[in-house]
Write a structure and sequence with these properties.
The chain is α/β, with parallel strands linked by helices. It folds into 2 domains: 164 residues, Rossmann fold, CATH 3.40.50; 105 residues, K homology (KH) domain (GMP Synthetase, Chain A, domain 3, 2-Layer Sandwich), CATH 3.30.300. The longest helix has 18 residues. The chain starts with a strand and ends in a 5-residue tail after the last helix. The structure holds guanosine-5'-triphosphate and magnesium ion (MG).
Length: 294
């Protein structure tokens, strides 16, 4: 049997389920997910290794109309990830119609003459009897065959994997078989903390938050001490984030700690600090400090 390998990027509008698919494929939480759009901010590699080959999946921020420097950084990250890739996966949503942004991305991919696949995610969210019509509506706009999947239940994901392997070139194993991401632990930990705010905080607040790990040190009795700064854009946001008697921050900390302990396989002491950095999303120097390098 020949060994195949290559890079596969997943692109699409925000919230279609790109990160959920990648986590499902790898079987671990590598990329954070949330019910809100614009969750993923960086391109994140997740590595799938099997007997027949190795796929390096690249999760990307959703593509949308940009409003500030952070937005532009994110969309640029998504487009940059299309360079030098073996297969592009464009993800669409069964619960929505074909949107203008879908068309913009589709046209861009078609013009790039790189191999690509089209998937329709969230098919578990619509009635079985409705699915053929939804697929048919999309096929009126898209020539290539659409692969319907559910990243949540895993339905038909195997078919997608087979399809990817069909198109992958023969190649070497780029990464050791037990390596599942190229991201350093500190990044994933910061992301896990950031994820909780998408669930617990209202309106626009999560979009103006950045998380940086300041210190990580193993202390007595196998406890990992982690000190992390959470940056917000406004003083009022700081108050909301901390909450009455520190309740909200505590809630965020408890939920994040559970994820982090699972990741590190050890007890964690999480020390969270909230800081105000005015308008960091529109300040290139601050963006860089937050880890969003252009
Ligand atoms: N029912 C259902 N929900 C899904 C499926 N895939 C993803 N979701 C949900 O859709 C929401 C968005 O998922 P994400 O994986 O964060 O979406 P994304 O495309 O990575 O979003 P951005 O990072 O913001 O671009 C989450 O609440 C997921 O649980 C699916 O197949 N079925
Ligand atoms: Mg995502």
């Amino acid at each position: 049997m020949t060994f195949k390998s290559g890079f596969v990027t997943v692109v699409g509008r925000p919230n279609v389920g790109k990160s959920t698919l990648i986590n499902h494929l790898i079987g671990e939480k590598i990329s954070i997910t949330s019910p809100r759009p614009q969750t993923t901010r960086n391109s994140i590699k997740a590595i799938y290794t099997a007997e027949r080959g190795q796929i390096i999946f690249v999760d990307t921020p959703g593509i949308y109309k940009t409003k500030n420097d952070l937005d532009r950084y994110m969309v640029n990250e998504a487009y940059k990830s299309l360079d030098g890739i073996d297969i592009i996966i464009l993800m669409l949503e069964a619960t929505k119609n074909y949107k203008k942004t879908d068309r913009v991305i589709y046209n861009q991919i078609k013009n790039s003459d790189q191999p690509f696949l089209i998937v329709l995610n969230k098919i578990d969210r619509i009635k079985k009897t409705k699915l053929p019509r939804v697929i048919n509506d999309y096929q009126m706009k898209i020539e290539e065959e659409i692969i319907p999947i559910s990243s949540k239940t895993g339905r038909n994901v195997k078919t997608l994997l087979d399809e990817i392997f069909k198109h992958l070139p023969e190649g070497p194993q780029y990464f050791p078989e037990d390596m599942i991401t190229d991201q350093i632990e500190q990044f994933i930990i910061a992301e896990m903390i950031r994820e909780k705010m998408f669930y617990l905080l209202r309106e626009e607040i999560p979009f103006g938050i950045a998380v940086l790990i300041e210190e990580m040190e193993e202390r007595n009795e196998n406890v990992m001490y982690i000190r992390s700064n959470i940056y917000v854009e406004k003083k009022s946001h700081k108050g909301i984030l901390i909450g009455k008697n520190g309740k909200m921050l505590k809630k965020i900390g408890v939920r994040a700690r559970k994820d982090i302990e699972k990741l590190l396989q050890q007890k964690v002491y999480l020390d969270l600090w909230v800081k105000v950095e005015k308008d960091w999303r529109d300040n290139k120097a601050l963006l860089r400090r937050m880890g969003y390098k252009g």
